[in-house]
Amino acid sequence: MKGLFSVLILIATTASAELKIIGGNEAPVGQSLYVASLRRSAGGAGVCGGTLIAPNVILTAAHCTGKSPPLTHASIGSHFLSGSNDGEQIRIVKEIKHPKFNPTTLSYDFAVLILERDSTFGKVKISYDAIPAAATSTIVRGWGFTNQLGSPSQTLQQVSVDTVSNEVCAASLKKKVDVSMLCAGGKAGKDSCQGDSGGPLTTVINNTESLVGVVSWGVECGEVGKPGVYSRISQA
């Protein structure tokens, strides 16, 4: 049975540790228009990622919210970290964190952002029953650091990472990885990193790209045997 937060997301989708991409490539312009950059001003640089799941709803990581200065705008459909030359910059009017979110462990690291108006871009498909098995190919997208000591990418990046079982992930990271989490990556030079938090992890289900995770946390970036950790959509 879905929890209250899943019901909230379901209603929205039927309604009219901060991380970055390492070892990826620039995403094709105009291909993943549901990806959002979350900003502290309309034209400012994004500080977290997000995903359009309904015309006026963004799904992101709870740890990206409730900070000062606050998130004020979602830039949707833009290829760039900052500016307003493309996409839509829409004001955020409300933040709702998952009721089970734990800021210490980052369990249930989900939040939805309600926008001032509808976006004209298409939302991503969500499959709550999709729980990728180990070694499932997924893609993570964002504007985060491209190396551990770097700076944010100015253009949207993407990288392919394979899922890893929670048991293997916990042993590799020497951290607790609970049922609300999903691990992917662990190969040298391919990972999410600072700045990617809240962004989408997707896979192809029945020939359709579907959202299965939200960038949450990790131990270093792009290191061998250290997968990135995502919030598992099927547990939202």
TrEMBL record:
Domain named Peptidase S1: residues: 21-236
Gene3D superfamilies the record matches: Trypsin-like serine proteases
Recorded GO MF terms: serine-type endopeptidase activity
Pfam families listed in its UniProt record: Trypsin
Signal sequence extent: 1-17
Entry keyword annotation includes Nucleus: no
Protein name: Peptidase S1 domain-containing protein
Species of origin: Aphanomyces astaci (Crayfish plague agent)
Upper lineage: Eukaryota, Sar, Stramenopiles, Oomycota, Saprolegniomycetes
